[in-house]
Design a protein that fits this description.
single chain, 155 residues, 8 helices, 2 strands, globular
Length: 155
C-alpha cells in the first residue's frame, strides 16, 4: 500500500498551489493541513459509524463540504495550526483548502472501480488498527513516531 501520509501531502500541496501562503509559515501550514486530514481520518475510523463516514466521503456519496470527516479536519486545522498563526485575511483562503483536499481523496483511493493509489479496504484497516507495515501500532502511532523522530533528527 502506498504511504497515505505522502499521498495526503501531495493532495495538500496541489490544492495549495493557487492560495497565497506567507513563505515564513508555508511548511507549517501545509504540514499542519496534512496532519489534520490524517488525524481526522484516524479519529473517524476508530469511532462508531466512522468507517461508513469515510467510505461515503471517498466514494462521493457525501460531498466533502458536508462530510463530518471534513468538518473534523477543519476543526483540527483551525485549532492546532491556524489558531497559532497570525495570517489575517489569508486564513479564510487557507481554511478553504480543507474541503478541497478532502474532496480530492476520492482520486487517490481505490474503490470498487479499482482506480486510485490506495485500496479503500487497506486504508480503513490501517486507520483502525494497523497492519504489518505499521508494526501493529496503527497509522496514528506511525505518524506520531515519525513526527517525534523528525523533531529529534531520527527517522
Amino acid at each position: 500500500m502506498a504511504n497515505i501520509s505522502d499521498l495526503i501531502l501531495k493532495q495538500v500541496t496541489a490544492a495549495a498551489g493557487n492560495v497565497e501562503i506567507p513563505s515564513a509559515v508555508k511548511d507549517q501550514v501545509l504540514g499542519g493541513l496534512a496532519d489534520s486530514v490524517l488525524g481526522s481520518l484516524t479519529q473517524t475510523a476508530t469511532k462508531a459509524g466512522g468507517i461508513d463516514q469515510i467510505t461515503q466521503l471517498v466514494t462521493g456519496k457525501v460531498s466533502a463540504a458536508s462530510s463530518p470527516v471534513t468538518a473534523l479536519a477543519g476543526s483540527l486545522f483551525s485549532k492546532n495550526v491556524l489558531g497559532g498563526l497570525n495570517l489575517g485575511s489569508s486564513a479564510n483562503a487557507i481554511s478553504a483548502l480543507v474541503p478541497a483536499v478532502m474532496g480530492n481523496l476520492s482520486n487517490i483511493i481505490k474503490d470498487q472501480d479499482g482506480d486510485g493509489d490506495i485500496d479503500l479496504n487497506d486504508l480503513l484497516i490501517t486507520l483502525k488498527g494497523g497492519n504489518k507495515s505499521t508494526g501493529g501500532a496503527g497509522l496514528l502511532g506511525s505518524v506520531a513516531s515519525g513526527l517525534v523522530g523528525s523533531l529529534f533528527g531520527k527517522k
